[in-house]
Amino acid sequence: MKRSALSLHATRLAALTLAAGTVVSLSGCESLNDVLASDRVNYKDTTSAPPLAVPSDLTAAQVDQRYVAPPVGTALGGAPPRAKTQAGNLTEGVPSAQDPLGMHVERDGDRRWLVVDGRTPEQLWPQLKEFWTENGFSLKTDAPTTGIMATDWAENRANIPDDWFRRTVGKVIDFAYSSGTRDSFRTLVSRDSSGATDISITHAAMEEVLTGQDKTSSRWVERPRDPALEAEFLAKLMQKFGLSDAQSKQLLTDARPSTARAQLDSSAGGATLDLPESFDRAWLRVGLALDRTNFTVDNRDREKGIYYVRYADSMQELKRDGIFGKLFYSDKSTKKDAHEFLVNVRSKSDTLTQVAVVDANGQVDTSSDAQRIVSLLHAQLN
C-alpha cells in the first residue's frame, strides 16, 4: 500500500531524529499501538486517560449521590437478561426452533443485515453504543428515536505497512504514521413486524492520494464501500451479542436471501418504484439503499413512511470532522445549504409497496434531482 504524504513526511522526520541521536532507547518504550490487531481492523488508536488522583494536601470533596452517574453497563429502562442457547451461549437474542442462536443474517445482493429475535431497538441501543466505542470510534450521530447511529471518520491502523522502519522508530512515534485512508460507519436500527430488530452497518471511505509531479501534495478522494468490512463488523457485533467467532461467520455464510426486484413506474408524471413486498421489508431495504448512495438520511419517520435525506459531500464531512474542521465548520452551516428531499415509502397492499420522492404536500416530486434519487434507488434495489 502506498504511503500518504503525511506518512512520507513523518518518515523523513523520524530519520532526521535518529541521525541527531535524540531517540531514546526502544527497549523500555511502548508505542500507541502496542499490539496490532491480528485481523483486518484496528481503529483503537486512543486509550483512556488515567484517573485523577487527589493531592495529599487536599481533601476530596463529598459527592452528592443524587448526581452520581449510573453504572456504564446499565441499559435505558434496564436490559433483559441474556438467554442461554442449546450450544451454551448467553445471547442477546431470544432462541427459537428457527433461530437456535437467537439471531440470523439476511442479505440482498452484497448487502447484509442482522436480525435479533425478540429484542426491541431500545433494548439493544446501549450495547450498540458500547460496540462502536470499544472498537475505537466516536459517534457523531446518536439518535435512538430515529434509529440512526453514525461514527466520525477514523483510521484503520491495521492498513499501515508493518515494515522494519515502523517496527523500530514506530515504537516511539507511531502516532505520526498514517495509512492515508479514513472510514466511517452508519448503523440503522429498525423494529420489524415480528418484534425482532433489524441492524444494518454501512461503510463509507476516503483515501488520501499524492498529487503533483513531485508527489509532495495530496488530496482526499472517495473510495468504494467495502462489503467485506461491513460483514466483518456484523460478525464482531454478533460476538458482542454472545456468539462465538465461528458461529457469527457461519450465520454470515448462511445469510437468507431477500431479492424482490423494484419496478419503475412513470405513469404518475414522475418516476416511482413498486416493490412487491410488505411495508416492513420495503422500509428496511429503502433505508439500506439510501445508505449506499451519496444521500444521507438525517431523519426518518416510520409512521409517516418518510426518509428525510440530503446530498452528502464526503470531502466536506471529512474536513469538518478533522482537528481544524471542528473549529471552522458546524453542522448547521453545512446542512442549511443542502436541499432536503422526502423519500416516501407507502403500502399499496399487503404485498406491494410504493417508493417515491414527494414534496411538502405529499405529491410526487417531478424535479430532475428527485428523479435522480429514484433512479439511484432503482439501481440499488435491483
Automatic annotation (TrEMBL):
PROSITE patterns linked: PROKAR_LIPOPROTEIN (PS51257)
Signal sequence interval, chain numbering: 1-19
Domain of life: Bacteria
Pfam families found in the cross-reference section: Lipoprotein_18
InterPro entries (UniProt xref): BamC_C (IPR042268), NlpB/DapX (IPR010653)
Residue ranges of the region described as Disordered: 72-103
Presence of the UniProt keyword Signal in the record: yes
The UniProt record lists the keyword Phosphoprotein: no
Name of the protein in its database record: Outer membrane protein assembly factor BamC
Organism: Paraburkholderia franconis
Gene that encodes the chain: bamC
